Amino acid sequence: MTNIWVQLVLGIAVPALLILSAPTRWLGRTAVLWLIFPVIFYIGMILWEVFTRPWNPDLLKNAFYGFMIISPLAIVPWMLACVIGFAIGFGLRRLLRPGSGKSALPVPLPPAPIPPPAPIAPAGSGWRSVHLGFANDGLKIGACEVWTHAWRATGEPSLHLPHPAHPSQTHRYDIYEVGDGLQKARFAAGELSNGVWGFYVAVAERVEVGGVSADGSLRYEHRLGDSSADTLTGWVVLIDVATGQVLADCAAWPSSRITGNADGSLFLLLGLNGFETLFRIDPAARTFRDQGMAGPDQPLSQLSAAVEQARRAPGPLELPYRRISPDGTIRVDLAAVEWRNSQWVHTPRVIEIASGRVVLDLWNTDWDATVEFPGSRRVRLDLRRFHEGGSVSAELDLARGTYRIVSDPAGPEAPLAGIAQGLENAARIAAANSGAGWISRYAAPIKPHPLAAWRAALLILAGAIVAIGGATYLSIPSTPPERTPLSTVPGMKLDLQPSR
Fold it and tell me: How confident is the model over 103-156, as pLDDT tens digits?
């Protein structure tokens, strides 16, 4: 009876441990391999008999008949034990490894490889970004319309703060005042490129910032929330000037901002846990569309519902991160893949929004990426290899159809069609230069072994064989059964002499 309980415990414990320990991307294969393991084990025993014993013509026929007799009796207990074990394993996985399953995505961020979409000044600077737009775009800071007043320099030292859309770039901002009395506003402004201005306000000055569309039909406000340390959270509200109707209130979003475009349209950029959504608003046509997905035009009256829908369902579970360029031309989808227990890689796919063309696809690889947008129709990827090692930075220029390796050693521009091979070569060179030995700059990239993807599965299978062998060993009695001694009838003498 003890051996039966040992077999029962092992039959449930082994699949539970397999589900608990397997990486997320191997869960399906692990479960399938364990379900069909008895068949694999049975076939292995037959092959062992074939190669280690003299050939018996009836071996295969007997093996088939044996399988037909055993399988109807064993399949129900086996499936029941597997289902119970898998259920226990998933339960333990949820308790001991929160965020390791797809149902728990988005996963807890290892530090998140994606900078927050809301531009925030460096900690301790005392300034926060409030606006990025073109000159004469109707910007209001507090009660003052910035572009209709004369700017007065305060004489304070200039500030060096990040570009609102490209935090890696630092620019000079001068401090000005506009208006008088209760309508006076103080801000830091800098021309970041031809006709494009960035604005900061002091954290201590709780002023609201807003503007109007080029045709004057829409007004937007960047409203303030609660203060914490030297930063202020805020959100965007879009209002119809003629009716006063609120077309979109983004208070529920962690990050939101509106910027004006040269063609008179507005961009509404929303961010939630590293997933960005971009709406292009056409005030003259009274329409909007999901610019990030190149969606169709919709009536402006439906914008509020679209904003809420995007917040409730920002993207598929397997795609927790998305970055969109400030000019609305490039989208980078980052898929989270668990390569080892609780070790995640964020693999990029670069897409040209207008055409839907996939410029670079590194999904299902071990490339981990962070994303920046250094200019119009350009994206920079800072990449590292999870297994082979080596870090590479590449800048893709979709306008010119080229890419360039910008990390050390930097390379010349090359056609975008060869970027995947170029990254492989650059990563191999970087790994060799950072470790022992030397490798030719033009050496061919290392190709993974065809069975590399099945290594984990084979290890799991080997572990299962050991577990089954151990269970079989424990089930064999260690002492022979007791035998009843031979007794004789009283008065009878056994004659053990051979007869003549």
Answer: 333 333 343 344 444 444 454 468 888 888 778 777 778 767 788 788 999 999
Which amino acid, residue 21? Answer: S
Domain assignment present for 269: yes
- Enter the DSSP assignment of 101: S
φ, ψ of residue 43 in degrees (nearest 5): -65, -40
One-letter amino acid at 317 equals: L
Res 267: pLDDT? 92
The pLDDT tens digits of the residues spanning 186-236 come to 899 999 888 888 899 887 776 667 778 888 899 888 776 554 434 445 788
Q: Is residue 499 part of a domain?
A: no
- Beta strand 209-212 pairing with 140-141: antiparallel
Domain region containing 100 = 2-104
User: 253-271 in b/e burial notation, b at 16+ Cβ within 10 A?
Assistant: bebbbbbbbeeebbbbbbb
| 8 Å CB contact between 254 and 231 | no
**DSSP code of 431?**
H
Is the CB of residue 234 less than 8 Å from the CB of residue 240? no
Note the Cα 148 to chain centre separation in Å.
Answer: 45
Please state the φ and ψ torsions of residue 13, each to the nearest 5 degrees.
-70, -40
State pTM to two decimals: 0.54
Tell me whether residue 235 is exposed, middle or buried, using C-beta atoms within 10 angstroms of its C-beta: 0 to 12, 13 to 18, 19 or more: buried
- The verdict on residue 396 lying in a domain is yes
Token duo for residue 233: 């959270």
CA distances from 222 to 136, 152, 178, 304 (A): 17, 23, 19, 16
Pick from 87-101, 266-280, 301-315, 318-332: least confident: 87-101
Phi, psi values for residue 74, rounded to 5°: -100, -20
Question: Do 205 and 137 touch, CB atoms closer than 8 A?
Answer: no
Judge if the upstream peptide bond of residue 106 is cis by omega within 30 degrees of 0.
yes
pLDDT value, residue 212: 83
Q: Calculate helix-pair angle for 37-52, 27-35, nearest 10 degrees.
A: 60
CB–CB of 347/365 below 8 Å?
A: yes
Q: Domain boundary residue among 315, 349, 379?
A: 315
- Average model confidence (pLDDT) for the chain? 76
Q: Are 268 and 329 part of one and the same domain?
A: no
**Are the CB atoms for 186 and 200 separated by under 8 Å?**
no
Q: Which residue has the higher pLDDT, 333 or 90?
A: 333
Which of 96, 113, 115, 114 has the alpha carbon at shortest distance from 104? 96
**304 and 179 belong to one structural domain:** yes
Which residue has better confidence, 437 or 163? Answer: 163
Q: CA 266 to CA 278: how far, in whole Å?
A: 10
Hey, what amino acid is at 353?
I
- CA separation for the pair 282, 301 (Å, rounded): 12
